[in-house]
């Protein structure tokens, strides 16, 4: 148990930082390209500011990401030995194709301002963005294969062998899961940019930057929080319905099968009693969402053997937290966007406060989404093929994993504190440093 | 084909050692080498843009091991559970130190992070060396191929000697990097230090060579690759000493890279035909061919890895050239 706790702790901590980098990277590329195009000092300084934030998140992401690459082997040796011929491929490709790309171009972005041409600098910003998203793709492909294995054959001695690499890399399940994950990251990026903008306006400093961040952030947050529900969340849900019906039942807290299954908006699952406590239902809606028909039958948990159930409470709450927060994001972004014309948003402190305070929640929503995906997959480590219990390292004893769990908790507490200090410091310094950023002569003339 | 995969993996790890080796070595020796805080700043600044890119080679090699030899990945990582986790923690301390040092430049904390950086770097090099030593010496394995033994059994005299050689060799490598990149005064002192460290490296090299022959007498007779590579490495080491005393800075760094490459090729070839050699040829052990997936998978994985790495090499070189050419022209203008 300690090994799984350790793995999920290190994974969830790590995942915060890729959300931040994948969410912020497009803004860096956008501001750099705008600066190149218009010669705007505001855009150039905005790009530099977000690059600094990105760099801190990237560094913590790297030092917490290296353990993930190692922990498949340390914690999940039996799983790695059996499935490595398949899942090793996307992980290798991530390292060789995406991680190098991102880190080398980030080096240019951080240290190359005076050393490379402005065009190459803007290209590097775009490359960092592409690299971070590509990196995310191969990680999601790995996970998607564990959710819905494709492109494999069973080899001698029960190993799982690769049959088709394109089938693994281009799995439709992975594509929709990735689209959902990446739009979730953009929601986080959009709300962080808008939230920092709201902070500058509330604190009455860096007003020009505040207004710019607010406008761009709110528009991105609105578009992405719509896309994260439809089509990406919807398609992802369709895949879960088709391939992982038990997970669907656990997510929705549906214990008994029903034609015209209701959708539980709130309620607390009583697993022993096979019911939801204090629920608020929308009748027939779950059947409609799952199958597009109000009278369709949706299988409840009790139609499956108990040993195939995932931990119901965790899956249920994680899903409801994600979906509930997603709804709030749409509402808030919509209100903020409606106030954007003629600069009214900048004069509406309650909404600015809401945008400022909402910043951590897209991260919580993304984490909750991963909990739904991974906890909901239990008891399988590879859905339908290999049980999680069979995947652990046979020769690592609990004493070792408890020790390393304690160590990681301590280490990550320090990391988290330092990260918060560094980010707050960068936001405190702000984007408006005195020195002008060198611009290509052509752009300045315009 | 599995031999090609083995060579690719050994090659990636060698690139990692040579690249990350200079920043590990430089940060390990920096508190002793630098006489002022400004000089320490200069050393850290010279590795700042490159260390994380260099570390990517370790991550990529880990991913490649996973894809090319999944069983070896599973057995070695779970077998060396505690050492690997400690390596992870040290990498973290090092990353934090480099990152925070740059952002929170208060003198008190700069001193603190420099010591943390140096200690974590020394320990990392030592652990990497000990791991390599154990792979050459052989590892006690159970019948089903998993590691049988404890952390302390890995700290045997032979592997510890390899670890000490690694520390000495990478400190020399780091000094050569500083000599090649720093301003005149610091570079001169780095060359002077190489003159002293060189004798330690030589002694450790000779000791490890003798101990390897004592531990595994057959290495001398079975293949010429390890003997030849070791000889090339020795030539590199001699050149390091000569170039350093004649103050040829880039030559010193190049010779140090040749020395490391020779040692690593020799070490890899003594492992052949095993990926995980059982101690004293007891039962078990994982040969290169047994660890590889079916040849179709291996061919695809190799093609993907080699083409990817070629692209990486091209754009890394192009970008580094773009960065350094502008720097020299702007210096000339200023």
Structure explained in plain terms:
The complex is a heterodimer of chains A (446) and B (334). In chain A, strands 1-2 form a two-stranded antiparallel ribbon. A two-stranded antiparallel ribbon of chain A has the order 3-6. Chain A has one domain (2-243, 314-445). Chain A is mainly α. In chain A, α1 packs parallel to α14 (398-429). The mean pLDDT of chain A is 91. Chain A is 69% helix and 7% strand. Chain B is mainly alpha-helical. Chain B has one domain: Formate dehydrogenase/DMSO reductase fold. Chain B has 14 helices and two strands. Chain B has helices at 2-33, 37-47, 51-68, 70-79, 81-103, 107-137, 151-154, 157-181, 184-215, 219-222, 224-245, 249-271, 288-291, 295-333, and strands at 274-276, 286-287. Chain B has a two-stranded antiparallel sheet with strand order 1-2. The N and C termini of chain B lie far apart (54 Å). Chains A and B meet through α2, α3 and α14 of A and α3, α4, α5 and α14 of B.
Number of domains as seen in the coordinates of chain A: 1
Radius of gyration of chain B: 20 Å
How are strands sequenced across the largest beta sheet of chain A? 1-2
CATH architecture of chain B: Up-down Bundle
Number of helices of chain B: 14
How many independent structural domains of chain B? Answer: 1
Percent in strands of chain B:
under 5%
Properties at a glance:
heterodimer; A: mainly alpha; two-stranded antiparallel ribbon; two-stranded antiparallel sheet; 8 strands; globular; B: 334 residues; disordered C terminus
Helix and strand layout, with pairings?
The complex is a heterodimer of chains A (446) and B (334).
Chain A lengths: L1 H37 L2 H35 L1 H35 L6 H30 L4 E3 L5 E3 L2 H5 L2 H31 L4 H21 L4 H12 L1 H8 L5 E2 L3 E8 L4 E8 L2 H7 L5 E2 L13 H27 L10 H9 L3 H15 L4 E3 L3 E2 L10 H32 L11 H5 L1
Chain B lengths: L1 H32 L3 H11 L3 H18 L1 H10 L1 H23 L3 H31 L13 H4 L2 H25 L2 H32 L3 H4 L1 H22 L3 H23 L2 E3 L9 E2 H4 L3 H39 L1
Antiparallel strand pairs in B: 1-2
Helix pairs in contact in B: 1-2, 1-3, 1-6, 1-8, 1-12, 1-14, 3-4, 5-6, 6-8, 8-9, 8-12, 9-11, 11-12
